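User: Predict the structure for this protein chain, please.
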Amino acid sequence: MGQAGDGGARRRLPRLPLLGVLLALLLLGGAGAASAHAGLRSADPADGTVLASAPRALTLTFTESVGLLDDSFRLFAPDGRRVRTGEPRHAPGRTDTAQVAFPAGLGQGTFTVAWRVVSADSHPVSGAFTFSVGRPSPATAAVDTGPAEDPLTGSLYDLARYAAYGAAALLVGTAAFVLLCRPPDPGPLRRPLAAGWWLLLAATLALLVLRAPYESGAGPAAAFTPSALSRTLTTRPGVVLLIRLALLAPTALFLVRLCRRGPQPDAPGEGRTAPQREDRTPAPSRAALATGAVLALALALTWAASDHASAGLQVPAAMASSVLHLLAMAVWLGGLTALLTTLQRTPRTTTAADTDGSAGTAPAALVAPLAATAARFSRLAFLAVTVLVATGIYQSWRGLGSWPALTGTAYGRLLLVKLFAVVLLLAVAAGSRHWTARLAAARTGLRALRRSVLAEVAVGVAVLMVSTVLSGTLPGRAATEAAEAAPVAAGVPGASVTEIPFDTGSPGGRGTVQITLEPGRVGQNAVEAVVFGPDGGLSTVPELRLSLSLPDRDIGPIDARLVNRGGYWGTDSLNLPFPGAWSAKATVRVSDLDQGSGSRTVRITR
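Assistant: Here is the predicted structure, written as structure tokens:
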């Protein structure tokens, strides 16, 4: 029966590295929160302003530092032709700005500005708005302001990013398990170590190649243009990826030496009791521990240096917290995968004689060193989870901003759910520690330990799923800042404000469009449309359409022809010829496949 159980374990063994990668993807699929992108705080000249004379330059100010592209600004004349501008640059001493010089003699009329920058968390953000010189143009030409994002490039880039996180968890966690927990037979762990290294190499190369089209919003084919890679290597994300590639070479040498470690065979003729066999795997040298720690820290820094921790509030503390959070996650998650692999190598059934601790029995000889390994991992996992909780609290505070946001925002409410799940996870981990102690003391509890570890994995998956949802939710601090920066059109005298709910039918696809018509009377009206997500914070969408109909007179639908103005959608040329109860229909596209519509009645007066 013992051999049969072992055979079953061997058949299940290849699935375990895949389990580790799956768990890592659940944890880190949203590690770079999409809602953490830089937001446009102000523009000079501002959107919709009418200037007496042409400005000499344009300055945009963002909520965090931004990187500039060769094509960060495009200026279009009233007739739709593109106007040549100067090179984009930062304002002196201000990395949170983007500035461009305009040529002399712009002329009069309404000009369109399209902009695109890279936020500190490495994600590109873009927008467009208009300003007028002298007086607004009677009619504004249709202008193609360029793509917000190529769907295929974005999907491939995100897939590579998630794979890199999963590979880091598998690689660092399994190596830490071999070094610090000293499994009786590290041989089965060589495969996940190699898989983690190769996956990290492939994912990093993919990120490096796709970086240029991802920033510019172009298709994947743009990655193979002559200037794409050279431009990427001059940016901070590109340099960080190159450093990560360079670190993989010494990491490979370290793993080769690590994989040569193994249990020390008994000397010929030397008999050892089961307790004496617990530590046959030699303890790592201080040099090996130091080398592994330095390589792990260096790899983790390549993530912290290119994500949102590198900008904003308390940058040194945020980067340190990000590094510790990533390493603790890897040690716990990758180590848990390694422990499951090791447990599956042990027979599932033993006899009473085999479990009484007597010397010389084969199961006791296997369980004894396994007990020592499980005890070491139990202590290591407890430390890792403690670090995860501590750094998670700090990062949550950094994103939350205030106590009222804990219950007043979707981000805060998700934090409360995650806190409950983490408490449950710690309780299950305490059960694992109990059975580990039983296993070490009496050679019993192996089956119960397996069940406890699997329960720990199940609760861990729940925590990671909440983390994934949380990472895609607008942080409370950002929601407050976005609300303060939103156009306050509702306060305009005589303005008509209408809220239109929509639902795309996909998770997180619900929201509200706030439509403001000014003056809300017959004739020419200006429109400002702001999209709010399910958490109540501002949401950026690739397309928003608004049409109005007057059923009583069989008029419409009239397309408002909204233009993306960087943070909201608007137009200054909606003509409503008659008063009455108009039906306003808003259609919101949140992705290539998902869009939703909603309608509300808007009353237009004379």
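The chain has 13 helices and 18 strands.
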